[in-house]
Amino acid sequence: MRRFALLSATAAAAATSAVTLASCVPAPQPTPNLNPGAQAAGIDADRPEDLGFPLPDNSEIEPAGATAAQTSGDEVPAGTLRPRPQNLNEAIPTIRQRGRLIVGIDQSINGLSFRDPVSGELSGFEVALSREIAADIFGNPDAVEFRFIPSTDRTAALERREVDLVAQTLSITTGRQQEIQFSAPYLSSSTRLLVQRDSGISSFEDLPGRRVCAVGASTPLETVRRVAPASDILKVATWSDCLMAVQQRQADAIIADDAILLGIADQDPFTVIPDAVTGEESYGLGIRRSTPSDDASGLVRQVNWTLERIRSDGTWDRLYDDWFTDSPLRDEMPAPVYVEEEAP
């Protein structure tokens, strides 16, 4: 938080100095573009805030209406594999031989997966959930290696076999089910807005002509295209980048799941999440697709076994209370939907 405050203070001081110097010049001069890459990235040079700060790395402006939403928001994903007793040495031999589970996570979403600023340890609901899975596989909740993965690279990291699981607000969608497998859902959230308190935005109807931030290759990006077709979109690599963009007035709003927005709002008391809601998402753990030479179904069943256990023994309720007490998130674990299978 202090880093953002310092940036704001520095920007204010720079702006004051610029005004003072300009008053000494006999003839007004055109405002210089202080961000040389702005126009190349599709930024409107007439928007003053785009001239002072560079946009986040690997970001891009998508003009309003340039890309149609690829989903209607009404698709119903297929179910997942039912958990069953397994010989783990046969079901997940590579993981058992390695002696640890490798999980892809974020490290900057408060409440879900973040690095504690005091202890330096990774914390949050998704971190704790990953430890529960490791405990059931190895009898040791610490037998897990966490790897940071950008949101835009989650499915690719699974396809490249860089991680066994992705526990990173990965919404279960029909499109993603064509690329990876999912566990049963472990958390539900609603899609909302986050804005500065003085933005004048209180609903999605206030967004035409405003710039909205979302992470690339995310379901919220598709939601922005669907519910805010008259808004330019700032596409970034991480949700922290969206927060920075809103603080620097490079974006007017963030559209994301409230599980994500709650963590962002915790980092800036000058932001607010209006009551407006559009759609719901359910998060599942991402697992690579099975191939004839690489059957990942054993891992899917094992993860779902853990999810059934934490539902029945009260662990899920405890984790929710640890990280989301008094939040607007739904305080019950989503019901699983299993595909029909022949008895083994």
UniProtKB/TrEMBL annotation:
Residues 100-327 form the Solute-binding protein family 3/N-terminal domain. Keywords: Signal, Transport. InterPro entries: Bact_solute-bind_prot3 (IPR051455), Solute-binding_3/MltF_N (IPR001638). The keyword Cell division does not apply. One of its GO terms (cellular component) is extracellular region. Residues 30-86 are annotated as: Disordered. GO terms for biological process: amino acid transport. Gene3D superfamilies: Periplasmic binding protein-like II. Pfam families: SBP_bac_3 (PF00497). Residues 1-22 form the signal peptide. The keyword Iron-sulfur does not apply. Belongs to the bacterial solute-binding protein 3 family. This is ABC transporter.
